[in-house]
Design goal:
Elements: H1 3-13, E1 63-68, E2 73-80, E3 99-102, E4 112-117, E5 141-146, E6 150-163, H2 169-173, E7 179-191, E8 194-210
Length: 214
């Protein structure tokens, strides 16, 4: 990470992080998913791993798409920066809702926590792209396709719902020694200004592929 991007990353991390929230419409209840074991992310010939079996960190390439098969997410990715108050931008509220990658975080597959944000609801437009994020379970997968044609495959380690007033800044944005992914949206009960909680998915890199993602 360059000195400039590192400063921006720290600035956002120390700000008021109420990320991934929008809309006044009541959240709709999503139907329960029929879950099955996740397929292998790639064949042995297309997966890059070290001798220990640990996936090798990728070089920096902008993520262009995110797929989370278990909850039906398949979204292009916007590039998000900083808002005027120094906090992380969130995607715009539109009918065709998309998630966004915080561009001052590591790219998916690089060492460090890559951060992607999305809405749970988008006002009068209804459900947001991350409306079912809280349904994710440990062991399920998220695949980030990169601009260079490679994909980073992450496996969920934990799904956490936290009060916005107690947002775990260090856990989300702090340094880690391996490629990880953070997915963030709103959740919990609604208050006067929106949702009171954040839903945060913590995932780690478990594979890489080239070409079309599975």
């Amino acid at each position: 990470m360059t000195p400039l991007s590192r400063r921006a990353f720290v600035t956002a991390a120390t700000g008021s992080l109420l990320a991934g929230c929008a809309g006044r419409a009541p959240e709709r209840t999503a139907p329960a998913a029929h879950r099955r074991a996740a397929p292998s992310p790639s064949s042995p010939s297309s997966r890059s791993t070290a001798a220990s079996g640990t996936p090798i960190a990728l070089g920096r390439s902008v993520p262009v798409r995110l797929r989370i098969p278990a909850i039906g997410v398949d979204t292009p990715l916007l590039r998000l920066g900083l808002a005027a108050d120094g906090t992380v931008q969130v995607p715009p509220v539109t009918a065709h809702d998309r998630a966004g990658w915080y561009r001052y975080s590591p790219a998916p597959g690089q060492t460090g926590p890559s951060v992607i944000l999305g809405h749970v609801t988008v006002g009068a437009y209804g459900d947001g792209v991350f409306r079912r994020l809280a349904e994710l379970r440990r062991g399920e997968q998220a695949v980030a396709r990169l601009e260079n044609g490679r994909s980073a495959v992450f496996t969920v380690d934990e799904v956490r719902t936290v009060a916005k007033a107690a947002f775990p800044t260090q856990d989300v944005y702090g340094d880690v020694d391996r490629p990880e992914l953070r997915l963030i949206t709103c959740g919990g009960p609604r208050g006067g200004d929106g949702y009171l909680d954040n839903v945060i998915v913590f995932a780690s890199l478990t594979g890489t592929t080239t070409g079309t993602t599975p």
